[in-house]
Design brief:
By secondary structure, the protein is α+β, with helices and mostly antiparallel strands. It has a domain at 3-147: Jelly Rolls (Sandwich). It contains 7 helices and 8 strands; from the N terminus they run H-H-E-E-E-E-E-E-H-E-E-H-H-H-H. It has helices spanning 3-8, 35-43, 99-104, 125-134, 136-162, 166-176, 195-201, and strands at 45-50, 55-57, 65-71, 74-79, 85-91, 96-97, 111-114, 118-124. The strands form 2 sheets. Strands 1-8-3-6 form a 4-stranded antiparallel sheet. The protein has a 4-stranded antiparallel sheet with strand order 2-7-4-5. A hairpin with a 5-residue loop joins strand 4 and strand 5 (85-91). The model is unreliable at 1-7, 180-186 and 204-208 (pLDDT under 50).
Length: 208
């Protein structure tokens, strides 16, 4: 793709047509598979560019499949009955969204809303399950990601419940962005957050 073609893409994001030739993938990304697996993945993928503020899926919606975030960032949130929104996580490039619900054939646990323009790669649930059966590395990689997501969620809930002061919650949030041992190589990335996003991460305010 030449410079003129890249300038014509929405939001200045270059469209990647083939996962096997993707220049964006790095070590630790969910889609850091072998070439044969990437060729199979690309064959069932639906790539699209979406603007900021777009809803990829809604909390409680039946899982349709997974979204691999190629570029941009997405906020994963949950909403209480009184309308209070808590941002559970801000996902960055290389992460898979809706993975747990798609594998277990349940409803999405969170709402995924793009915080910036994003290039996303959607794979229908049935196709993803078939890929895991065909390529053992995908099944193992998925299990690793789900395990790490569980551990991260446990730590976040533990910190949110046991930390009483807002200052303490903010300090724990900032510390949680630092790299930890035991994560998949290259997966832990620092995702910049606005003041509003930080407040919503520690349940200080409702979304305007």
């Amino acid at each position: 793709m030449d410079e003129e073609e890249e300038m014509k893409t929405p939001y200045g994001i270059a469209i990647v047509e083939n996962c096997a030739d993707c220049p964006l993938v790095t070590a630790g990304d969910f889609c850091a598979f072998s070439q044969p697996a990437l060729v199979s993945l690309s064959g069932v993928s639906q790539r699209s560019i979406v603007p900021a503020g777009a809803i990829l899926f809604v909390e409680g919606q039946a899982a349709r499949g997974i979204f691999i975030l190629c570029s941009g960032k997405v906020n994963l949130s949950t909403t209480s009955k009184d309308g209070k929104i808590l941002i559970l996580k801000t996902a960055g490039p290389g992460e898979a969204l809706g993975l747990s619900a798609s594998v277990s054939s349940t409803n999405y646990e969170t709402t995924a809303e793009t915080a910036t323009p994003c290039l996303v790669n959607f794979i229908e649930r049935k196709h993803f399950l078939e890929l895991m059966q065909t390529h053992n590395e995908m099944g193992l990689h998925t299990a690793q990601w789900l395990s790490l997501d569980y551990q991260t969620a446990y730590r976040d809930i533990h910190d949110l419940v046991l930390t009483r002061s807002s200052a303490g919650k903010l300090a724990r949030l900032l510390l949680s962005q630092a790299p930890r041992e035991g994560v998949i190589e290259g997966r832990r990335k620092s995702i910049p957050m606005t003041h509003q996003e930080m407040a919503m991460r520690i349940a200080l305010r409702e979304k305007p």
